[in-house]
Structures are given as C-alpha cells and as structure tokens.
Amino acid sequence: xxxxxxxxxxxxxxxxxxxxxxxxxxxxxxxxxxxxxxxxxxxxxxxxxxxxxxxxxxxxxxxxxxxxxxxxxxxxxxxxxxxxxxxxxxxxxxxxxxxxxxxxxxxxxxxxxxxxxxxxxxxxxxxxxxxxxxxxxxxxxxxxxxxxxxxxxxxxxxxxxxxxxxxxxxxxxxxxxxxxxxxxxxxxxxxxx
Length: 193
Hints:
This protein has 193 residues and is of the alpha/beta class.
C-alpha cells in the first residue's frame, strides 16, 4: 500500500529533498517511537509526495487521477489556504471559512481522500521552523530551495523543534496525524509478513 500526499507546490513534479514532505515524515516518526530505523528508511517509498504546481493543479489531479492513486492506497490533498478561494469566480466562491472551502473542493472533486488546508501556506511552516530553530526569518518569500533548506534542517534536527512547529501550525499537525494513522497500519502490515 502507498500513501499519496498531493502537495500544492510551485515546482511540481518529483522532487528529492522536498522539505515539507521530509518534515512530515520526521514528525510521523516522532509520533510513533516503535518505528524502527529500517521502517523509517522505507517510509519515503510508502508515503510519497506528489507536488502539483498550484492549488488548481491539486484539484485537477484529484479529478483526473484519484481513482488510480486510491487503487494504491490512501490519498491526502494539501492546499494553501491563503489563495485557494481564488480558484472560483466571485459568484461561485465559497465562504471564507475552512468548512465552506473544504465543502466546495469536495463538491468539485468528489471522492475518498483526506484534505488539509494549510493555514496560510507552506511559508507558514518555514516561519515556524525558523522560530523553532532560532534562525532569522526570511525577509522576502524564500525560493523553493531556501525553503527546503530550512524545512530539511527542522526535519533532521531535534524532535523539540518539530513539536514547536506543529504547535504553531495546527493544520500541519492535522496532516501529520492523518499520515501517521495510515502509515502505522502500513508498517504493522509489513512487519506481520
């Protein structure tokens, strides 16, 4: 079974060292101390990132590819909340609340998948990571490479920093819990064989 996380990301495509996803996997490990080093090493093959360039592409991927992705296992879509309402014209725009936005997304892209709207955007994770790591906040929006450097440092640093990040970005914490629940089932299934 493969767990697929479709990320709104400005790059799109398959990316190695994708900071938000590596941070997610490190937090999953934090939540389950029974994960062995071998199991953790297998997580990137079991929990895969599918960056889609923009919120609109996440929705398109759900409409077009969800059946195929679900055939492999659970799917979760992660969108940036700050601009997601711009996907619809002002006449069709959902109310500016999480339930209204989520309802509109699920109406436009029905199916069985998890849905996380990051409060603001991935840069919220970068800012929280900088605070947790006691490093200077970026003055301007960081490039994807700069963003990944900060997030990878948080991913491979201490668990205390990741805990602080999750407390500050509750929507990311919800994503961690969703993936952790699915990953635990996959790891238990694999260790039983």
